[in-house]
C-alpha cells in the first residue's frame, strides 16, 4: 500500500498545483466567469486518465503466460524510465512552471476563448493522471499477488493526504517552500523507480534463464553479493517500497547504480544555450 499511496499523493499535489495556478490566474485577470470551463477541463482530464487505467487493467487481464510476463516487465521498465524523465523535467522546469502555465492560459484564451482554458486544463490534468496510471501499473506489476483492495485503499488515502498537504503547503509556503516538497518527493520517487527497474530486470532474467546461457551470465543475474537479511529482510516496508533485495545480485546492483547515476547526471546537466545572432547593421 505504501508505493500506491505515495505515488497518488505526490502526483495529486502536482495536479492540484496546476489547477490552483490556473484558477489564481483567472481570478487575477477577473475571468472567474470561465471557472466552469476550468472545472470541465479538469473533469475531462480525469476521465481520460480513467480510460487509460481501464485499458491497462483490461490489457493486464488479457495477457497470460510468457507474454503476460513480458508485458508486465515492459510496464515496470517504462514506469521506471517515465519517473526519471518526469523528475528531470521538473528539476529543470519546475521553477518556471507557474509562468509557463499563465502564458499558455493567456495564449489559449486569446486564440480559443473559454474553450482554450478548458482544453489547457484537460491536457494538464490528463498528463498528470496518465503519469499516475503508468506509475501505478508498474507498481501493480511489481507487487503481483498483492491485495487489490489494499492497493485501491492506498490510492484513496494518497489523494486525501494530497488535499491536506496541498492546503498545508499553500498556507505555510513561506515556512515550507514548495522546493523542499519537490526535492523530498523526487528522492522517494527515484527509490520507487529504481525498485521497479530492478524488478523488471529480475522478471526478464527469469524468462531468459530457461535458455542455455553462459555460466557467468547466470552468476551475474543470480549470485548474491552480500546479505542484509538480518537487518533488512525481503518482507520489510523498505523492500516493498524500493524493491531492494536482502541478497542482491551484481545485476541488481549495476541496474540500480546506473539508474541513479543517470538521474543525477541528467538533473545536474545544464541546458544548452541557444546562440543568439547579433542584429544586422545597415550601412
Automatic annotation (TrEMBL):
Topology in the lipid bilayer: Multi-pass membrane protein
Keyword Cytoplasm appears in the UniProt entry: no
InterPro entries per record: FTR1/Fip1/EfeU
A GO molecular-function descriptor: ferrous iron transmembrane transporter activity
Keywords attached to this entry: Membrane, Transmembrane, Transmembrane helix
Regions crossing the membrane: 6-26, 38-64, 70-89, 109-126, 146-169, 181-201, 249-267
Membership in a protein family: Belongs to the oxidase-dependent Fe transporter (OFeT) (TC 9.A.10.1) family.
Protein name per UniProt: High-affinity iron transporter
Amino acid at each position: 500500500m505504501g508505493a500506491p499511496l505515495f505515488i497518488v499523493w505526490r502526483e495529486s499535489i502536482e495536479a492540484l498545483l496546476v489547477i490552483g495556478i490556473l484558477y489564481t490566474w483567472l481570478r487575477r485577470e477577473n475571468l472567474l466567469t470561465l471557472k466552469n470551463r476550468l472545472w470541465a477541463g479538469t473533469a475531462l482530464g480525469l476521465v481520460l486518465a480513467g480510460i487509460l487505467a481501464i485499458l491497462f487493467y483490461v490489457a493486464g487481464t488479457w495477457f497470460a503466460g510468457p507474454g503476460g510476463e513480458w508485458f508486465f516487465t515492459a510496464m515496470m521498465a517504462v514506469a521506471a524510465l517515465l519517473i526519471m524523465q518526469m523528475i528531470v523535467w521538473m528539476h529543470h522546469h519546475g521553477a518556471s512552471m507557474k509562468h509557463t502555465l499563465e502564458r499558455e492560459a493567456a495564449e489559449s484564451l486569446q486564440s480559443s476563448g473559454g474553450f482554450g482554458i478548458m482544453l489547457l486544463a484537460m491536457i494538464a490534468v490528463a498528463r498528470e493522471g496518465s503519469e499516475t496510471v503508468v506509475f501505478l501499473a508498474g507498481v501493480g506489476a511489481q507487487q503481483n499477488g498483492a491485495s487489490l483492495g489494499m492497493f485501491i485503499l492506498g490510492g484513496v488515502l494518497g489523494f486525501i493526504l494530497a488535499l491536506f498537504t496541498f492546503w498545508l503547503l499553500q498556507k505555510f509556503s513561506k515556512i515550507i517552500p514548495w522546493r523542499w516538497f519537490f526535492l523530498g518527493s523526487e528522492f522517494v520517487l527515484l527509490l520507487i523507480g529504481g525498485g521497479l527497474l530492478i524488478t523488471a530486470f529480475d522478471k526478464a532474467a527469469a524468462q531468459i534463464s530457461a535458455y542455455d546461457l553462459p555460466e557467468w551470465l547466470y552468476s551475474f543475474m543470480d549470485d548474491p553479493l552480500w546479505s542484509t537479511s538480518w537487518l533488512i529482510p525481503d518482507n520489510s516496508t523498505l523492500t516493498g517500497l524500493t524493491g531492494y533485495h536482502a541478497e542482491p545480485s551484481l545485476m541488481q546492483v549495476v541496474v540500480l547504480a546506473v539508474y541513479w547515476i543517470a538521474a543525477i547526471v541528467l538533473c545536474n546537466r545544464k541546458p544548452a544555450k541557444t546562440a543568439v545572432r547579433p542584429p544586422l547593421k545597415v550601412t
